[in-house]
Amino acid sequence: MNLLEAMKERHAVRNFTDEPMTAEQIGVLSGIIDELNATHGLSIQLIHDADDAFGGCPTHYGRFAGVHNLIALIGPDDADAPDDLDEMIGYAGELLALHAVAFGLDTSWVVLHEATEHEGLWTLEKGQRMPAAIALGHGARPGRAHRSKPAEELGPVADAIGTYAGAPVWFHNGIEAVALAPSALGKQPVRFTLLEDGCTVKAEALDGVQSRICLGIAKLHFELGAGTEHFTWA
């Protein structure tokens, strides 16, 4: 399946079977990780076939079982780090999650506490931070779709545009994709505003848990849904 299809198929799964990832799945994800690390200066790492891929770390939210595979989303957190590391991690991580789904895997975003103090199989160097991770594998049971805010709330439009109904089709497609994006506690703390010129979109993180990560995830969804040829970011 393509990434748009994967977006619709993806639902959070927290309980996994012992079925291992295939060599093809590992190879595809490893190649994408290498590209993302080289492009964005990240240190994302794939852990697979571990007894406990969380390394004993407690999770911020949700109970997990049978997690043998993990994408550790790591980046610089020093004087040279980008201001938007959380947003970048959200964007890159969701791209990996969608590719994983496209290749037959189930996934769930997770925030791990005390990542530097437990026996994780990732390498977290001095001056680095792991804002989040993605558990992946074969789900013990299917995930369920989440509720979403109304489209008009996720995607307001400038007065010059009129109403959400009067916005172009590409904007509707982008907001529909944002509605499918995972977010911390399902709160969707993001907003995408179509500005007066009808082709510029302002993306904002609102108050909420891990809102910058959520924004990065949602921006990827918007780009995939709307098509980057139709708009520019404010």
Structure explained in plain terms:
This protein is an alpha+beta fold. The chain has two domains: 135 residues, NADH Oxidase, CATH 3.40.109.10; 83 residues, NADH Oxidase (3-Layer(aba) Sandwich). α6 links the parallel β6 and β7. α1 crosses α3, α2 packs antiparallel against α3 and α5 crosses α6. The longest helix has 18 residues. The chain starts with a helix and ends with a strand.
Which CATH architecture of the largest domain is right?
A: 3-Layer(aba) Sandwich
Radius of gyration: 18 Å
What is the percentage of strand-forming residues? 15-25%
CATH class descriptor of the largest domain: Alpha Beta
Given as residue ranges, the uncertain stretches (5+ residues, pLDDT < 50) are none
Q: Output the CATH homologous superfamily of the largest domain.
A: NADH Oxidase
Derived structural class: alpha+beta
Can you give the helix content as a percent range?
A: 25-40%
Task: Fill in the CATH topology of the largest domain.
Answer: NADH Oxidase
Order of helices and strands: HHEEHEEHHEEHE
Overall average pLDDT: 94
Protein name: Nitroreductase
Organism: Bifidobacterium felsineum
GO molecular function: oxidoreductase activity
Based on the model shown, name its key terms:
single chain; 234 residues; alpha+beta; NADH Oxidase; 2 domains; 4-stranded antiparallel sheet; 3-stranded mixed sheet; globular
